[in-house]
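Re: that chain you flagged

S.,

Sorry for the slow reply, it's been a week of failed gels. I finally had a moment to sit down with the sequence you sent. For the record, here it is as I used it:
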Amino acid sequence: MESARDRRTEEIVEAEDLWLLDDIDTTGYICWGCGIEMYPSAWQKGSKKRPSFNKMPGKEHINCDADAESTVVKQGQKKSVRDLLDSAPGLMPAGLRLIEKRPVVDPDATGSENNSRSARSASSTSHEGNAPTRQSRRPVNTIRQICRAFIRFPHDRDISLNIPGIDAHTYKSVFRKLRDPIQLYPHRRVNYSTLVWQKFEQSEDRLVIFLSGEWAPDEFGNPRPSRPYKLHIEWGDWSQAKRTLVRQELEVAKEEAKEAKKKRLSDRAQIFFIGEQNADNPEIFHVTDYRLICAIVGHIT
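Prediction finished late last night. Pasting the structure tokens below so you have them in one place:
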């Protein structure tokens, strides 16, 4: 599973957010649908796999919306599943709500245990042991789940989506593919493009990654990037944990894309971001918040 609920705070945690943590409480998560214990895997720094949450051996989901997600995703590739999405809290988020979170020390925790909890909202409350209540579509704190929904449910992109600062209000109108040739885009959108397999440029102030843009044939007639879009991730004032999360996700996406190519799948490493375009150099976009960029391997219909 791609998300689970913190046992103490009831906050839903994305698996990729585990990369932000130095220490993980492996017994601190439950299924957001039915409440059975879930344990995180592949969260260690340097892992070439994307983190996930898994049920404990011998445990099964019980009448669980979360367990049914894979079936809904498969159906959504072929037809509209809007009636199911309206009751699934994470599959098709209602919007983006950026909330700064800070660690909260549990009053009954002591010693090193205080440092092993997820970063979470100070307003979170604890109801350990209770099965979560059903929720409708909700806003999320990063664009990752929103971008997954865009890929997974091509027949439901007319569903509403509210992202502050973007003057469009459906999945179809909020997302924009960066086109060839390089051009200026006057309206703010969730941009996406394919990651070019070129070495990242990294400094203390920024990370530069290269995306698909303009192409030209090489001396053998094969197409090669001639003027790629460049994404400048301005991370000069970021914590090391935030830098690690973004870099790790990009590296894992590269590996996933390589595996997809070996299997002759049409999946590609897609980079999604909300950023500012450079007016003097329109091939350059700037991103300043780690929550406004993600890398997902998939095929966009």
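What I noticed first: The mean pLDDT is 84.

Talk soon,
D.
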